[in-house]
Write a structure and sequence with these properties.
It is a single chain. This protein has helices at residues 2-16, 19-23, 98-101, 175-178, 326-333, and strands at 33-35, 39-47, 50-56, 61-66, 71-78, 81-87, 105-114, 118-132, 151-166, 182-184, 188-203, 211-233, 236-257, 260-282, 286-300, 306-323. By secondary structure, it is mainly beta. The chain contains 5 helices and 16 strands.
Length: 336
Amino acid sequence: MRVLIILILWLSFLDSHASLLDSLKNKQDTTYIKSYDDKLITKLDLDNDWLSFKLTGQDFKYDIRPNLVANRTLSFSYRWAYIGLSYLPDFILPNKWNERRGETSAFGIGSGITAPRFLFDVQYVKVKGYYLNNTSDYVPGWNPDADPYIQFPELGMWMIRGTALYKTNPNYSVRAIQYQTEAQRKSATSFLPGIVYNYYVIDNKGQNSTSSQHSNNLMLLAQLNYYATLVLYKNWYASLGIGAGGGFYYTWLLTRQHTGNIESTQSNRVFQGFLNAGLGYNGSRFFAGAEVVHNESLSKQTNNIEVVFTRTAYQIFIGYRFNAPDFLKKFNKMGL
């Protein structure tokens, strides 16, 4: 609840200071970018966006993942603003793995703000219920086709993650491939240096646990990204993004035991890389496409434990541009 309140206050602040975006505008060649600032964009996508983590030490390796089949994200974009809501209704794609991997619940809400040169986005994600993907390493004779995985039903994670990026080429449109409030009419590329941040909490406290852990983690990285959009034919395009960066990873750890709690802290270096590729159709009203994203960060802790966070997403999306309703057009007249 506190996170949602913060998000609402943040959006209210941006709304009240939206005229600042106009002061940041740079002239862009309209033969490269077509704007749809007079349209309300609705978008529905189906993806398997999930975050897993691996812990590796001298005598153990844990590959821990949530049991997610597909997220459904409904989003709305207008001019410089975006908001999306992710949910997991099983009636569309029933999860046949629930009995063997356990049930996972997930929820997410995200928002983005764009200016011609700048891009800011933030997302809140909450996931509960994980399983051990490499169960065969710990259960002798385990049958991968029939036996249940080791499950962590009480293991939960909630996260706030986001980026702040600067676009070096004003004729390259990030909004065209992320929010569809613009369309790229000529092929273009751009570097996007920026900052990536992740704050997440992991808690595996169970009702019958004699020992459990709660960790607060902050990851801050400086990252250099390179994006390219190739206009294939009229409204068809292909996109590619690559990036790498490094920074610091801070952990505040609480270990609960029946004899008492143990608190510890540590900070380590972290390195991250990502790859993004997509193919789509971006017409004047209708748009659709597919995209794959892979993001991986690596950190070696002081106790020689290697922590790898992996985020992989395969996305199919479809959307439509409606004429903006009158109450939104009033914002245009106000210069917002």
